[in-house]
Structure formats: C-alpha cells, structure tokens
Amino acid sequence: MSQNIIIITGAIFGMLSVIFGAFGAHALKKTLSNEQLKSFETGVKYQMYHAIVLLVLGFNSEYTSQSIYWCFSIGILLFSFSIYGLVLSDAKGKKIRFLGPITPIGGLLLIVGWVLIIINSI
Fold it and tell me: Which of 1, 42, 99, 100 could form a disulfide with 82 if both were Cys (CB 3.0 to 4.6 A apart)?
C-alpha cells in the first residue's frame, strides 16, 4: 500500500466527516431526535478520528501495513456508515435493521487496526 493512497484515503474520510458533520448539525437538526443526532455525531467523530490516524500513518510508513490500512478503512465504512444508515432510516420510520449487526463488526475492525499498530511498533 503506497503512502499516497493511505494519505488520500484519510483525507477523503476526513473531508466526508466534515461534510456529514455539517449535514447533521444543520440539515438534520430539525429532523432527528436528540438521541438520533447523538448517534449520528458518534459516527462522524469515529470517522474523523480514524481519518486522522490514516493521515498520520500515511506520513509515518514505518508504523503501518496493508492490514492496518484495510482494518481502518473497512472499519470506518462498516461502523460509521452503518450508523448513518440506521439513524437516517429510523428518522424516516423504516429502520434498516440488518445494519445493526454491521456496526460492531466495524468497531471490531477499528480495534484490530489499533492492535496492529501496537504490534508493528514493538
């Protein structure tokens, strides 16, 4: 995995988290309940945290690997994007239930990514 791809991926996820955060804070503020808005914001925060980690790893290639890249990238997609889907579908009264079990799988991948960073650093 090239450093540029890791950096670009981190930047795209970071950019999208700013867009989604603004969308949630402005466009969805009147549509979502406080609980739904908090869940949406959790997805945005975790997406941004891991986007920043991808950027740091892209600029410090000795600490990263393809496994870490994929754990964080797929973890963001499964964790944050399933939360977005759950919240938005719930707000429309048609909650997409199959997304519920996907969120913890994404979280597990994010955790594995962190564990791999520890292993690569030892």
Answer: 99
